[in-house]
Amino acid sequence: MKIFQKEIALKPHKRGFHLITDLILEAIPELSQINVGQLQVFIKHTSASLTINENADSTVRLDFESHFNKMVPENAPYYKHTYEGPDDMPAHIKASLLSSSVEIPITKGQLNLGIWQGVYLCEHRDYGGSRAIVITAFGV
Amino acid sequence: MKIFQKEIALKPHKRGFHLITDLILEAIPELSQINVGQLQVFIKHTSASLTINENADSTVRLDFESHFNKMVPENAPYYKHTYEGPDDMPAHIKASLLSSSVEIPITKGQLNLGIWQGVYLCEHRDYGGSRAIVITAFGV
Amino acid sequence: MKIFQKEIALKPHKRGFHLITDLILEAIPELSQINVGQLQVFIKHTSASLTINENADSTVRLDFESHFNKMVPENAPYYKHTYEGPDDMPAHIKASLLSSSVEIPITKGQLNLGIWQGVYLCEHRDYGGSRAIVITAFGV
After folding, report:
1. How large is the average pLDDT for residues C94-103?
2. What Pfam families does the database record attribute to this sequence (chains A, B, C) (predicted)?
């Protein structure tokens, strides 16, 4: 088995949903050495998350932000964890509704994504700062 | 390490939640050769998804459809990505609330699922058509 | 490749969100033998789930319970799967909104989590009883 792992820091992104597929591919050129396998991207935070979705039309990412803000509102009367600001507790919930990791098959040295699929960094805080991600690729 | 990978096309399913555990098992008979490992099922689309849930009572799957339609409604006034029809943007959001993949442990040549667990294809479009999935099993 | 797998039974937890990171680490001391790899925790149930979130302030976990109860209410008029009690169908939906598994990178014999990340057992039933989880760690 081959296994490669990289930890990188993403520059700060504004609150919202951002395509990071190219950043991942740049970080792990060893992917080309894997014929069959799997790649994981893991985010080491609890107020930002990862998901896979549409990679072409930026309005999809705007609508994600609008909908998640509605489904997980700020200042809900039942929140007790409020001392880090109104964007904090919703950020934690959104992060678990999405995921701390994505797992993608590797086929012939490439991510075997559908043509419309890309990896999103989901930044749920107003000022989340830099985010650390761990990329692990393994296979034969 | 042993690793096996298959890409298959699922026939079109109507909008809703469908059990596909048996289709997965049929597609990868090499599973029986793995004593300890993991299986991934990955869907190459952004308006259909995968999850694991109850495999016995079909009303659970109906209730999933009802609830997701309520939680992620069509025609929300804040949607900007509307040109592919009212079922499109909700489909993208539902796909990320669920997942593009499921990962299941393999034990003694079989999926180590609970007795009530099955894999769902979650078809979020009215006419989603055929869906491509990649099945990867690895272990020793 | 090294691969280790353990199946354990968690004692009954009350409805809500509970940190189980230490229980996982205790169950798989072989983790220390893996320099680079990945750990999966999988729950063999459809009315309890797993997620990764904030590991310090217990009010985060209380707010998770409050918000999920609001987002996926009991006794929704459209539920058809009602014969196992009002907490059952919401439990299935919550389980799929979160996940049946978490996957975490392993680096130098340890889980490569962020300092604020922990693994939650999400018990969605009023009386869920003991829960079986399968822990699989692999790598080199």
Report:
1. 98
2. YjbQ (PF01894)
